[in-house]
Design goal:
Elements (H helix, E strand, L loop, with lengths): L2 H4 L17 H28 L4 H33 L4 H16 L5 H24 L14 E2 L4 E2 L12
Antiparallel strand pairs: 1-2
InterPro entries: NDUFA11
Keywords: Membrane, Mitochondrion, Mitochondrion inner membrane, Transmembrane, Transmembrane helix
Main location: mitochondrion
Length: 171
């Protein structure tokens, strides 16, 4: 299958494609795009299920309260990880941990409880460091990846036959 089915073009952030400190602007732009997309999803859920604002200005304002911090946090993560990696000259999990903590601090402003927001920032830093460590060692959390569509043929009869036996022909 082609690369177009393997990853959704909106979900590609290029974070692990090059060492930290290289392609910072590209990583920042694509991370902010993904953050805005995720913030838009949460904003839509809030608008439809929780706050139910009336009027186009109220709906837009409510959506922006989710989109803006999420895009800012994602951009801050990518830019901080890139700058720290450039200054240190190393491609290490510490870069992503510091970037995620900085991005988490942006998200902490979204919470009314600041200690809880800083706790979320710390958890994000641990998760980002672990993900970078796994990526550097070549390990994967999910064996098929996050997007296992490469195992499917969308144009003919369903899943690929990659088990080594022939398809039955009596159907």
């Amino acid at each position: 299958m082609g690369e177009s089915l393997r990853y959704s073009p909106l979900a590609k952030t290029y974070i692990y494609d090059s060492p930290d400190g290289q392609d910072c602007l590209k990583k920042t732009f694509h991370s902010a795009k993904l953050g805005a997309l995720i913030g838009g999803y949460f904003g839509a859920i809030d608008i439809v299920a929780i706050s139910k604002p009336t009027g186009i200005l109220a709906v837009t304002g409510r959506a922006l309260t989710f989109v803006t911090p999420a895009a800012g946090a994602a951009a801050t993560f990518a830019m901080t990880a890139g700058i720290v990696g450039d200054i240190r000259g190393k491609d290490s999990p510490l870069n992503h941990g510091l970037g995620a903590f900085a991005g988490g601090c942006i998200l902490a402003t979204r919470f009314s409880n600041k200690p809880m927001g800083l706790g979320v920032a710390f958890v994000l830093a641990l998760v980002a460091s672990a993900m970078k460590k796994l990526n550097l060692s070549g390990e994967r959390i999910l064996p098929g990846g996050l997007f296992p569509q490469e195992q499917w043929q969308f144009y003919k009869y369903g899943p690929k036959n990659n088990r080594g036996f022939k398809e039955p022909t009596n159907y």
